[in-house]
Design brief:
Elements: E1 13-17, E2 23-27, H1 29-42, H2 66-81, E3 90-95, H3 101-116, E4 120-124, H4 125-135, H5 144-153, E5 156-160, H6 169-184, E6 188-193, H7 208-213, H8 218-222, H9 224-233, E7 234-239
Parallel strand pairs: 3-6, 3-7, 4-5, 5-6
Antiparallel strand pairs: 1-2
Length: 254
């Protein structure tokens, strides 16, 4: 059974008395809360991350790297300044697995929705590519553009785990389409990636053996042209530390 607001009696508006007499009508706070709930549902945040917010973000546990606290502060300032000071720019959260990048990205999205009624969308990079590939099946009614349009149109997009899919020409073309479209429309994109924000290693010196042993970079995974585009679209926030899921967040019973 739906609870009726005690302040407006379910009308959605309130009469506010004026000091000199008379009154004005204003929207009740319950309407703002209900709108935020609807926007959160439409944001498609996975159940695993529904609890993620600035308040639940762990940045000060024993042994935590100082970069985590700095990233949290940057994220809070980003939300506070949006959209006046951000100018369409987003954030690129980089770091190893398990340092809290997705948690912080969802926290940003959650705050923008609840505090500023932003139309946001969470999108897993690998899942997006799978959905697009699936749309090429003649037996599937959904088209590629129907999948991509919400990604293009979201006021704020969280693109999680950029670079996680094996790079191919098709993957690179798809990444370019998404990023360039949002760049041209000046839409804000919050990106997480496990890859360091460096150029493709093949462009650097060293022997073939040393290049083969090195860790891949974001340039390797999405191409240097798109990495350069990200430099215009996003402010880089580097997050360092141990895998939170294997320490503080380790699964346990009881």
């Amino acid at each position: 059974m739906k609870t009726v607001c005690s302040k407006c009696g379910g009308m959605g508006v309130r009469l506010i008395p004026l000091p000199g007499g008379g009154s004005v009508v204003e929207a009740c706070a319950c309407q703002v809360e209900q709108r935020a709930e609807r926007l959160l549902q439409r944001a498609s945040i996975p159940a695993r991350y529904e609890h993620c917010s600035f308040d639940s973000y762990e940045a000060s546990f024993p042994g935590a790297d100082r970069s985590l606290g700095a990233a949290h502060l940057m994220a809070r300032r980003f939300v506070d300044g949006y959209p006046a000071t951000t100018g369409g720019r987003g954030l690129l959260l980089t770091g190893d697995i398990g340092v809290g990048k997705t948690h912080l990205a969802v926290g940003i999205l959650h705050a923008l929705i609840t505090e500023k009624s932003v139309r946001g969308l969470f999108c897993d990079y690998r899942e997006l590519l799978k959905q697009i590939q699936h749309s090429y099946n003649a037996q599937v009614a959904t088209t590629e553009m129907e999948i991509l349009q919400p990604v293009f149109d979201a006021e704020v997009l969280v693109l999680d785990e950029l670079g996680a899919a094996k790079p191919t020409d098709w993957v690179w073309d798809t990444v370019a389409l998404v990023l360039n479209t949002r760049y041209n429309d000046k839409r804000t994109t919050i990106i997480t990636t496990n890859y360091a924000d460096h150029a493709p290693g093949g462009m650097s010196g060293g022997s073939a053996a040393s290049r083969a042993m090195r860790e891949e970079t974001l340039g390797d995974r999405i191409g240097e042209r798109m990495r350069s585009r990200l430099a215009e679209m996003c402010v880089v926030v580097e997050m360092r530390g141990e895998d939170f899921r294997r320490t503080v967040g380790r699964a346990r019973f009881g």
